[in-house]
Amino acid sequence: MGVIALVIPLIAFIAALIIPGILILDYVHVLFGALWTGVDVFLGLIFFIVLSGMEDRIRSDISFRLIPMLLYFIPAMSVFTPLLGFALAMRENIFRLDYLFIAIITISIALAVVSFAVIVPAIYSIYKGFKSNNVDESRNGKLLMRIAKAASLQMVLQIIIISLMAYIVVYI
């Protein structure tokens, strides 16, 4: 089922790039951004608070269901959302290398680094343990908390990017 979390966004990503105009491109970019931010709100706020009071065994059981989907979804959103945003800015002819866009690019890179240096390796490590039937519940619980903390950071960074983009759309 996790592959669906990559294939469907990939199809939407390609369609948004090849269909002329900005309507579909804007729609898919905003949809992806909302989904990604929503997942980070869930993982970073709600999930973190809920997981904090659970035993490692329960955290590990939860991760068994969650991890396959996240293994594909997080990398897809980490790549597709910023690329669609860049394509949208280029297509609308509003992209310039001023302080606002430099801030957005910098934060986008930071988001990708958090995804690919912290979240994806933790997800893959948990997934690998499940696939080899070598489940370390304590380790999985700690990794899941690491994912939740990194998602919290991503949530804050995404709110900053959304604010900067809204400023650009309204005032520039």
TrEMBL record:
Keywords: Membrane, Transmembrane, Transmembrane helix. The keyword Transmembrane applies. The chain crosses the membrane at residues 7-25, 31-54, 66-88, 100-127, 147-170. It comes from the Archaea. This is ABC-type peptide/opine/nickel family transporter permease. It comes from Ferroplasma acidiphilum.
